[in-house]
Amino acid sequence: MTMESEKLNVQKRFAVVFDMCSSSSLIEELIRTHNLGPMRNLIISVKRLLMRESQSLRFEVHKFIGDGWILLFDVGTSGEELIRFLERLSAHFKSEFERWVAPVLKRTPTVTGLTFGIDRGPLVPMVMQQRIEYIGRPLNVAARLQTAIKDRDQRPQYKVLLSKNAYSALRVPNGFRRTVIVRRSLRNINEGKECQFVKVVLRVAGGAEGTS
Fold this sequence. Notes:
Elements: E1 11-20, H1 23-32, H2 36-57, E2 60-64, E3 68-74, H3 79-101, E4 114-128, E5 131-135, H4 137-148, E6 159-163, H5 164-170, E7 179-185, E8 194-201
Helix pairs in contact: 2-3
């Protein structure tokens, strides 16, 4: 038996992966105190913002991953436009976290906020369980970048780690935001060897900048 051959629908996209800092400890405390409602309210509020913004910026809210999302942007997206969106998202998260979650915590973690990873490249859509999924390296790299942004940085919140390929393609104007070239090794990427990436510090009201 042979599988019917199909022409692959390859799509070049920017993959943006973000999640919450200290989410595990936050959820553990909220479970202990039977207070998961505020976290649910926070997540719903962020989802609503993403759905609104996706209409004007034409990006796909692809998947919720427990404490964050995977977003897919067209390759024509400008760097300035994308960074400004991430700043609006961060400001909204910070405000809603302080509104819903912070008041019910006995102790707020030292690091709270969002971290982001971005890569660019080809993705192949396919239908699985009646929904569109994607396969492709950018998803894996963006997820690893989002995790690696916390390495050697005591204050990783509201920062973005991008592959040099993605940063170059976005054409972010020089001096638009503070950027730092860093070296990181990504698990199961490039045999775990250290490579250069670009870290961008977002401008978020009340968001402290950390070390590189």
